[in-house]
Batch of 4 targets.
Target 1
Amino acid sequence: MRTGITYFLLLFLFLVSQQLVAQDDETLKYKVEQLESKKASVAQIEREALKNEVEMINKRLDNGEISKKKAQELKTEAAEKRAKNIDNKVAILENTIELLKRKGAVDLNTDINIIELGFGADDSEGDVLFGVKYNSGKQKKVIYDRRTYGDPIIAFGLNNAIFDGQSLNDSPYQIGGSRFFEIGWAWNTRVFKNSNAVRLHYGASFQFNSLKPEGNQYFVVNDGQPELEEFAFDLKKSKLRMDNLVFPVHFEFGPSKLRQNDDNIRYSIANQFRFGIGAYGGFNLGTRQKLKYEIEGDNVKDKLKRDYNTNNLVYGLSAYAGFDSILLYVKYDLNPIFQDATVEQHNISLGLRFDLN
């Protein structure tokens, strides 16, 4: 048992580390692409600035403020200055890219310190600059996606019970006739502030678990013991339903698409594979048995609302896996269905879950 738990924990840590590495790689790739894009625009910005300076020099020449020789000298100086600006700025960006690649993902708000001098000319941002501009390469603060959001969930499928020491094949309940339904609300929170590698999935749900006995049997309680007995008439329907309020908590894993621009970062799990493992706990709100049968041509429906000695506390393990909002879902009650039963029974469910986001 301890070996199995140790193996599970190691697997859990490995999956978390893989998700973190993948997310960091994606963020690093984006930052490098942004710097490469800025490097490509440096030459264009400087050429536009040079063009504006040349136009101003030509206007001074036309107005007779400077000689033709002086105008040519100023144009040559401006061209040399802009060429050096291009070389220096590109070198800074290239060094930053190399630093990112060596160090891995770093803070998205890292500043690129650039000092620019200007007297009426356009700076690297396209603004008219008079004097000194510092940190012109500073990146905008990135706004991360909301960390928590909630959506309704619906699940349904097959329900049954496993008896201690027996297999599911030995169950006295019909496989197809016994079903479950769940409806609730679940929140999803990123465990890490700047990564969507692991999410905490939690909320509240109403669960309706039903058991349909084989043959013409129904539930009775004899001396505190729930038992199946043959009914006196031919049953058209016999079903026991347990209504629970539970609070599930899952750790969810799976890739997500990173969508970024200059202002924000968004994580999307649309059309992505994901899986979650966790547990739930709650309360039994009520138990009732429905019987349908016929007496001398008259249809009779009995709805018997009793506790049938079912447990008041409900708790168990659950897991899900799938793509996008359609998930295969399984849950298993660790608590016995009936209190003080000679042979314990544990509810088990398998079906589909839909996250209605």
Target 2
Amino acid sequence: MWIDTHCHLDAAEFAPDRDQVVAAAHAAGVSRIIVPAVELHGFAAVRDCCQRYAGCFPAYGIHPMYTPAAQESDLQALREWLENERPLAVGEIGLDYFVPGLDRERQQFFFIEQLKLAREFNLPVLLHVRRAIDLVLKALRQIRVPGGIAHAFNGSRQQAEVFIGLGFKLGFGGAMTWPRATHLRELASGLPADSLVLETDAPDMSPVFLAVPPGGQPQRQRNAPEYLPRIAETLAHLRGISLAEVATLNRRNAESVMPLLP
């Protein structure tokens, strides 16, 4: 049994064939999928998606890339969703200092306020962190939440250890499958086994076997939760363990950091 800890199943890319995407995931053994929202206007779509498909579970939050359009009143709406829907986590939230043009102070405001909500409702958080790891860690030290997942982790070993000390797991996905991602692969092979979880971030973060077809040129292709076991093969190879052992550690780690996961 596999758990995809981060998959945007509600995304428009899946609109034409979402039923088939979920069926393929289940056929591949991916029996549980966590679907994080990114903006208030998408909360209902995430909820409806998770109600429609067995094994799918929602998280609600305002993604840093969506803060330009967010209103402060969205935070009160988020509070109501957390209270009434009882999701697995608050997310996807965080900071993104990679994308140009995003107001950093505005990002920080929404991030801090959502951390406060996570603390109030005793929920873990699903973190988006790009070029802002130290600032995210600073906020997490100030506003202690019951752990969570640092999605698509790409920091240093020292930063990883701080996340782990704060009760977080570190998400690894398709980026780890690329041979040139030497730093990521070193982290995946060397970090404690109980600190890792697997994710697809579908439809994004395509693994190498999708982006580089045999004999072809690199091109972006849609990622999907059915590919999680193939992504896991890379982690098994890097750590020198069996695929079954990877499935077990992924399940245990996901369940430990998200206790509401059925």
Target 3
Amino acid sequence: MARIPKDYWERRSTQLMQRLERGTEKTIDSLIKAYEQATKNINKEISNIFKNYTKDDVLTKEQYKQLLTGKETDTYYKNLLKVINNNITDETIKKKLLAKYNAPAYSYRISRYEALQQNIDVELKKLANIEQDITKVRYVDTINEAYYHTMYDIQKGTGIGFSFAQIDNRTINMLLNEKWIDKQNFSQRIWDNSEKLGNYLQIQLTADTMSGKSIQRISSELASFMNVGLYNATRLVRTEVNHFANEGEMLSYEELDIEKYKFIATLDKVTCKHCAELDNKVFNVKDRQSRKKLSTFASK
């Protein structure tokens, strides 16, 4: 069999990455819309508080004291729990939120300010839930595209048709649940980032309100903080897509008992230094980073 030219594999690899990037951009567009909506919702909550306690755009010390001592109604709890039940689909997170915010309803009534912070927390959990749902779709598509596209390229390049196993849901879920960075899977990283952002926003809101900042200034700073959260989310998506694309390709190599592969990096201004250093190097499939044996493909 004739040797397949190097530029064939480079061209096919580039085409695959371009297809994945187009899908990734659509996912990022959805994330942008979700973060923009969450920012609007949080700003609305803050604005309502200011309107209830002052006619100006800042709170005096006395008004801030009233905000801290004014008690929220029982209706608030019913609405909060309804929001959690209707918007959080991750059962583990839902149970934690219900346990966290249901208990106080039977012991004491919290202040309006504490309620505001709870609303911010729940709004960010809603955002994280959306982020988890839309990115999961992208990652599943990425694994499938990388696997089947690689199989097609090998068949086309060699001119040999062959049968191969299909990827089943158990294999997909095993890859999605893999804790390959900081002992967390992609979902855990989303919720962890959400928790950090929520804690930061609540602390910053307290500092801004106590210092007498205007509602316009607080809203502007909130948008900046949320943009940082969006930046981290989009960076995570790009990293995860690259990871799952590699996993999909490796699955195809393992399925075909391919022993060696060459790392081909797209050398441009966004290529990381580490990837550039690996360009054109040959590796043994068996020597790649450890991963649980995925022997759950459907029958050929």
Target 4
Amino acid sequence: MRDLSKYKGIIPAFYACYDDDGSVSPERIRALTRYFIEKGVNGLYVGGSSGECIYQSVDERKLLLENVVDTAKGKLVIIAHVACNNTADSMKLAAHAESLGVDAIASIPPIYFRLPPHAIEKYWNDISSAAPDTDFIIYNIPQLAGVALDRNLLRNMLKNPRVIGVKNSSMPVEDISIWRSEGAIVFNGPDEQFLSGLAAGAVAGIGGTYGVMPELYQKIYKLFGENRIAEAMTIQDTCCRIIYKLCSGRCNLYAMIKETIRCLGGPDVGGVRAPLLNVFEEDRKIARQCADMILEARKTYL
């Protein structure tokens, strides 16, 4: 039996790290990895939406993962998102991830063409076959992928012994209960409902805003485990207000997050890749406000 207890707590979605010229930066990847180790998070989700995966080449994604794994040196659980919009490249990334010794690989369904469930099942199983000794996590994000996981597809996927669970980024909390009832472990996706996701049975959270305020989410997780729900709810409400502020600029969310991390004294990991929009001058004021909100929340709750 595999030990799935390592999948727990706060697992930030790793951000793409670029040099000033826009190329993937190994040095900045290593700096961000060290930053997360110092923050005490349990793991990292590498190469997903927050990592701008659809705008990177296979070689760039390999380079990013190599530097995360080499820097983490076993101190963090590493989940590598390996999906590309074709099976062959996805399998290459899956095999590469396994060769590095990651804990799990993950995959969204193919996007753009609306494939039937049996085609998605084959796509995922083909990817999994390229990493036969590595756990596999389904990434359910219907609002972006254009197709939603359902109970029958999950049941069929769970016939694959490598499939352990679902990173669930659909908004209905009920979905977490459904996947869990089918025997999957579930990672809560939407950061705004982390506490609700835990209550529905999620074992951990994987989120795009965890990296800018990991301490607050770690506190929610701790309080939930102690059954101090009212206190956890207060912090969750604060996190939501910060998220809404992060989303209020003209730039892309991840550009705003990276600017906020810089305001907090964290590493400079560059901007975002076009066609995503980098920070405008007026966005810098918002990022400073977000940083101030996070600092005040730290002072209040930690």
